[in-house]
Design goal:
By secondary structure, this protein is of the alpha+beta class. The protein is about 65% helix and about 15% strand. It has a domain of about 55 residues: SH3 type barrels. The chain has three helices and five strands; from the N terminus they run αβββββαα.
């Protein structure tokens, strides 16, 4: 009993080794059905009816107007009308056409991707340029801020100087008024002094005339020689 149980695994292993040792030609080959079918278009819905078209190529687009007993009445884009088995119709394009469409879409997307890459590169360069302009504008802003602060300081000094100037102008007007008063007094004094000199001059002239009149009378008369004897 134990011997039989031991021989069974050995027999199974021998069968597997023998199967692996067989030539590869005995194994099944992988194959694919060609995606190329031509379906005859018939005048009426039967397999022996008159053929209107020997074979419509797979992927041909058509409009279905009627379906019955496994047959469909179709009309092609070129206006050809007839019947064909419904089993050959699907509600979407065949794989080859879809693959072609996908290939074209992929090519389109690749082109758009290249375009987007170019635009991204251009946008990157533009962004760098804008960063440089922003830095320049920031520096200009800081410079203008400093100049504005200086102008504000100067404006404060200007206002202070203006106030001082107004005060000096007011003081100058007061001094000018005092100068005008003093000038008027000086002119009055000069006129008074001139009048005084005129008065003194006239007085001196009068005194001179008076002395001229009195001096001859004040001189003693000379006596004659005979009188002294």
């Amino acid at each position: 009993m134990r011997l039989r149980n031991l021989c069974r695994p050995l027999a199974g292993a021998a069968v597997i080794c023998l199967w692996l040792a067989l030539p590869s030609a005995a194994q099944a080959a992988t194959a694919y059905i060609v995606d190329e079918v031509r379906v005859p278009l018939r005048e009426t819905p039967c397999g022996n009816c008159r053929i209107v078209h020997r074979g419509l190529k797979s992927g041909t687009r058509m409009e279905v107007s009627e379906s019955r007993d496994g047959w469909s009445r179709v009309t092609t884009a070129g206006g050809l009308e007839g019947w064909l088995p419904s089993q050959y119709l699907i509600d979407r394009p065949i794989a080859r056409d879809r693959l072609d469409a996908l290939s074209r879409e992929v090519e389109t997307l690749r082109g758009e991707n290249d375009t987007l890459r170019g635009r991204a590169t251009a946008l990157g360069e533009e962004a760098e340029q804008l960063r440089g302009e922003i830095q320049s504008l920031t520096a200009t802003k800081e410079t203008l801020g400093s100049e504005l602060d200086e102008i504000r300081d100067l404006s404060g000094d200007t206002l202070q100087l203006h106030a001082q100037n107004q005060e000096l102008l007011k003081h100058n007007k007061i001094l000018q008024s005092e100068v005008d008063v003093l000038q008027a007094r000086l002119e009055q004094l000069e006129r008074n002094e001139l009048q005084r000199w005129f008065f003194y001059g006239g007085l001196l002239v009068a005194l001179g005339a008076l002395l001229s009149a009195l001096l001859p009378r004040l001189k003693p008369k000379r006596r004659g020689y005979s009188e002294w004897r």
